[in-house]
Amino acid sequence: MNGATVWLTGLPSAGKSTIARALAERLRPGRRVEVLDGDEIRAHLSPGLGFSREDRIENVRRVGWLAQLLARNGVLAVVPVIAPYAEARREVRAAHEAAGTPYLEVYVATPLDTCAQRDVKGLYARRARGELTGLTGVDDPYEPPEEPELTVDTRGCAPAGTAAQVHAALRERGLA
Q1: What are phi and psi of 106, to 5 degrees?
Q2: What backbone phi and psi angles, to 5 degrees, belong to 73?
Q3: At a CB cut-off of 8 Å and minimum separation 6, what does 153 contact?
Q4: Residue 16 annotated as binding?
Q5: How much is the pTM?
């Protein structure tokens, strides 16, 4: 089976990693799948990068390159990353298109207030206490995708249900 990249983008605590893990679990029987989690990538592939606009764009380029490498070798790369800037996401998409590698952008469109309530990593609480600046969607921009292949909102939907939506989109395209 051909590889592909499933790029999940959205605010911190939107549910990207949870959806990615549920999707990978759903696809793994009989399918090579790798989840390229944004936090793990930062720790292992981009540890020297900070959170300036330039560094965030470079991190997205690196993740995109790795996803495309895996995908062109038959792996379904599931990539849950914030990727806040449209410019960087366009570059990743263009690189996939140039290589003829299937690419599915999923916008995890969970509203900011819901993300702040979840606050999985405590980022919103740290920001509220003045311990953190540059939080995407709060005091650093998040540019929502203009034409994602799929938009999901995780409010009131279990991760398995959202993963099923992504899986259906992959099946529609002959990628699952």
Answers
A1: -115, 120
A2: -105, 25
A3: 108, 109, 110, 111
A4: yes
A5: 0.95
DSSP H or E run through 87:
helix 86-99
Tokens linked to 35: 């989840």
Residue 15 annotated in ligand binding: yes
The burial class, CB within 10 Å (0-12 / 13-18 / 19+), for 47 is: exposed
**In angstroms, rounded to a whole number, what is the distance separating the alpha carbons of residues 154 and 15?**
7
d(CA 113, CA 128): 13
- Would you state the pLDDT for residue 45? 87
- 43 labelled ligand-binding: no
DSSP-based three-state secondary structure for 57: helix
Phi, psi of 31 (to 5 degrees): -140, 135
Q: Please tell me whether 10 is known to bind a ligand.
A: yes
Could you tell me the mean pLDDT of each successive run of 10 residues in the chain, 176 residues long? Answer: 93 96 93 94 90 95 97 97 97 96 97 94 95 94 96 88 95 92
pLDDT of residue 1: 67
- Per the CB < 8 A criterion, the answer to whether 104 and 4 are in contact is yes
Residue type (1 letter), 44: H
The residue type at 122:
G
User: What is the Cα–Cα distance from 176 to 170, expressed in whole angstroms?
Assistant: 5
